[in-house]
Design brief:
Layout lengths: L2 H33 L5 H25 L14 H35 L16 H34 L1
Helix pairs in contact: 1-2, 2-4, 3-4
Length: about 160
Amino acid sequence: MDPISRLNSKLSFFIMYSTLLITFVVVYEVATRYFLNMADSRAIFVSVWLYGILFTLGGAYTLHEGGHVSVDIVYRKVPERVRKVLDIIDIGVVMVSGIILILVGAPIAWRSFMIREVDSSLGIVFAPPIWWFKWVAVISVVLITLQTIPMLLEKIKQWEVNQHG
């Protein structure tokens, strides 16, 4: 297994255990809201952040495992050689999209870090920092984009074997 896939596989264990943390936070929030009649807005924010981390960081591992949903109505009806070309194009589109998102997202995350951005939607009493969360999105896209490299190389290798074999 290549280093990028190994990294994403190891990260998947963090993601897997973060679901337990999300469960505890949501149970806490529900318990305080229904049993104590005191909704804790901090718990809502934390659960949203944890869901975001889970969703975004899980993207690279899901890509590696081939777990993304795809519509393959046309794909299954075309010859094998065309499918191999479509696979290469598909991975290339994901790679180019990732690069664009990194180029757009990194400056936004950097600016947010520089100004130490906070979420003041709840007022001045509770204004949690959110600059770090913007970096989670950028790092996730970097991991997804990096994951496309070994996938693309493998598809090209398969294409070459198919052409010469």
